[in-house]
Amino acid sequence: MLFCHATPQRLTGDTKTYPVVFFSIKVYTYIMRLRNVPGAQETVANSPYCEMEPERRRGSWRDFFEHPSPLHLEIGCGKGGFLVRKAQLHPEISYLGLEKYTSILVRAVQKQAQLELPNLRLVRAEAEILPMVFAPGEVERIYLNFSDPWPKERHTNKRLTSAAFLRRYEEILIPGGRVEFKTDNEPLFDFSLEQLETAGWEAEIISRDLHADEELMRENCLTEYEERFSAMGKPIFYTRIRKKKGDK
Ligand SMILES: C[S@@+](CC[C@H](N)C(=O)[O-])C[C@H]1O[C@@H](n2cnc3c(N)ncnc32)[C@H](O)[C@@H]1O
Q: What stretches of 76-230 adopt beta strand conformation (E)?
């Protein structure tokens, strides 16, 4: 995960250099604090709502839920606020939150322990191994909310919207499955739109100010980061993308 500096830096991609302002030191300190949550490992490992050995559910994720239904996956779900809202609004969908840090995931696990939503489950895993965790066509939709920007050029392939990750998504999504991406980071957003072309994907919706779009906002569920950034007056960038029809 990428951490923050108070000064403006640059985000570099394959072909371009982008200006970027990193997250504040305050956010950095907040996340570091979360890394040392006492008892987090135990809470997550003992939760019936969280899978710690994700490969064993490959091909049968729907059985993890009370009522099998189309599977929507958030990658990097953090503390789970977005998924809780989505799951409450759409009981007909199964929502799975994937997060690599136990110390952050524990907050989502605690929320779910209170709410016991039948259509919300969590998994501790790294997105890099997605094709080992999900069978082809097992996921209907993927959400990427405020993904880490990884500004150094040598880390381009770690960005969750890089062509390298789009290829992994293609493997696990149903034909015509969509990815929705939200960020406050304009350079990362521009990079992501460029990567679509490289990977043979297309954007169905692009908004450079999601919160000003009444229609899109009707379906929008806020994430913890989104609440924070929009309260600071920052525009939220949003796109919904899919693999181009007929593109292999
Ligand atoms: C900036 S936070 C955003 C959290 C949440 N989606 C939100 O919008 O409030 C990014 C989250 O993605 C997680 N993450 C980053 N890279 C990941 C990866 N490769 N696999 C799984 N989780 C990842 C981080 O640990 C962190 O919790």
A: 94-99, 120-124, 139-145, 173-183, 201-207
77 CA distance to ligand 1 centroid (A)?
6
Chain segment 53-106, per-residue pLDDT in tens? 999 999 999 999 999 899 999 999 999 999 999 999 999 999 999 999 999 999
Query: How does residue 1 score in pLDDT terms, banded at 50, 70 and 90?
Result: very low
Which value, to the nearest 10 degrees, does the dihedral of the CA atoms of residues 105, 230, 72, 1 take?
-40
Residues within 6 Å of ligand 1 by CB? 1, 75-78, 98-101, 104, 126-128, 145-148, 223-226
pTM (predicted TM-score): 0.89
Residue 110 forms part of a structural domain: yes
CATH number of the domain within which 207 lies = 3.40.50.150
Domain that holds residue 58: 8-243
Task: Measure 162 CA to ligand 1 centroid, in angstroms.
Answer: 15
What residue owns the CA closest to ligand 1's atom 11?
A: 76
Task: Determine which residue's CA is closest to atom 3 belonging to ligand 1.
Answer: 146
Q: Tokens 């957003």: give the residue.
A: 189
What's the structural domain count of the chain? 1
Q: Are 149 and 185 in contact (CB under 8 A)?
A: yes
Per-residue pLDDT tens for 221-243? 999 999 999 999 999 999 999 99
